[in-house]
Model the fold of this input.
Amino acid sequence: MNKIGIFGGTFDPPHIGHQVLAAEAYVQLRLDRVLWVLTPDPPHKQSLQFAPLDARQAMVNAAIASSTAFEFSRVEIDRAGPHYAYDTVRLIAEQHPGTAISYLIGEDSLFDLPRWYRPQDFVRACDEFGVMRRAGRSFPLEQLESTLPGIIAKIRYIDAPIIQISSSFIRERIATGGQFRYYLPEGVYREIISRGLYTSKLAH
Done:
């Protein structure tokens, strides 16, 4: 059976940390491909301002262009919001019948799942959760299992180098005139420069 990894985010901008995590998930979870799902406006970030959607799409495509393991997904772009993970997984499963779904998620977000939209249905919809470890943190899986029965059996940890880079860090560097070039894939860097993204007006 084929297995698809779902790697979602606002990717504002996508950086080398995203590439490393997606690549480690691809290898360690034995995925056939990783779908980079660009979220236009996540429900939990309604107060934030994002770079234009077409710019983020161009940056993601630039970030994944050299890899046959990665694929851009429009599943959230092509439908009206709000964009909940449960709906995204369900739609991707419908588009790829007979394919196992591995949802890639950070360890912090894993333990926030009970507050997500239709969390128990979401757990049932995913065949596994590829969890990116957070160094120095320990979470009680038993407590999560008591809230979302069946989730422990679906957790697969991904071991990857901890890269202390975030999109917000890069946006701030750009807005303040700091060095940011080597935190980004070459194509993403070119898109930011050519479009004049993340000036002080767009820094957030």
Observations:
- Residues 107 and 137 are 9 Å apart (CA to CA).
- The radius of gyration is 17 Å.
- The longest helix spans residues 16-28.
- The chain has a mean pLDDT of 91.
